[in-house]
Amino acid sequence: xxxxxxxxxxxxxxxxxxxxxxxxxxxxxxxxxxxxxxxxxxxxxxxxxxxxxxxxxxxxxxxxxxxxxxxxxxxxxxxxxxxxxxxxxxxxxxxxxxxxxxxxxxxxxxxxxxxxxxxxxxxxxxxxxxxxxxxxxxxxxxxxxxxxxxxxxxxxxxxxxxxxxxxxxxxxxxxxxxxxxxxxxxxxxxxxxxxxxxxxxxxxxxxxxxxxxxxxxxxxxxxxxxxxxxxxxxxxxxxxxxxxxxxxxxxxxxxxxxxxxxxxxxxxxxxxxxxxxxxxxxxxxxxxxxxxxxxxxxxxxxxxxxxxxxxxxxxxxxxxxxxxxxxxxxx
Length: 331
Ligand code: AVI
Hints:
Layout: H1 2-8, E1 12-13, H2 19-30, H3 45-55, H4 61-72, H5 74-81, E2 86-90, H6 96-104, E3 110-115, H7 118-131, E4 136-137, E5 140-141, E6 159-163, H8 173-186, E7 191-197, H9 202-209, H10 215-231, E8 240-247, E9 252-259, E10 263-267, E11 270-274, E12 279-286, H11 290-299, E13 302-309, E14 315-322
Parallel strand pairs: 1-5, 2-3, 2-6, 3-4, 3-5, 6-7
Antiparallel strand pairs: 7-14, 8-9, 9-12, 10-11, 13-14
Helix pairs in contact: 1-7, 3-10
């Protein structure tokens, strides 16, 4: 049934990178002085499933806290958004939060999830379409970290850009500001509902990214499995270990894949040397004080309207309107 529904949904293709571009990007990252890979490569089908598992781990406070904040303030959010909204969700992944939102909004018109993981995007979109027959569901296969065309048939005044999960934190502060500025410029008059993880005790952060069941480790190591499968690499998974360290200077978690020995790995035909202890940075997860984030968004052209925070000040959900007055000269 879902399969049939999935086939019936038209997927809009945004600007997903080609295999050749990904190969070039990955080789550039692995041959840099500090080896690094974009966190977007963590999300193949298995990676998306593992990330869903992370979201329900006891140590990973972010998802349940954001859900609680969204749910506690659903009526106020719905009143701010108004009727007939077109919801564009960036980095959609699991549709759990979108459902919570769609349940509370006043007769939403459409739901347009934008994601990089095709199979997962279709499956989630199909499930939403099956549950909300009155909502037009239009999945968009795109990498939102690159310029992409916003879904068509949407009036800016009614558009709600929904960007939950603190995915914005996986971009550098500069890239986050640039993405927000580009969104503000292209969605003049739209609203933005965005979840942002807050700076907190280093031990809490450490445990959230080094969980006791090893799911985050599996999620991280799955990146190497993916490179083996899709780029013909020969990473020996047993000789790499997951680690995540908190960097209090940049207020961010740095997720690493650490080589346990001196070794040479071939990736897409290129030999890459790893010294023992050398690591690939596979993700940064930036944390923001609520005011810092509101200031960053304001400078990017989003007028702060409301910010909700849980009682333990772990996670923030901000609501902005595009002001069209970004510091980058937008509009
Ligand atoms: C998707 N993103 C916001 C998660 C985070 O917390 O940065 C990804 C993640 N990585 C490890 N655990 C969760």
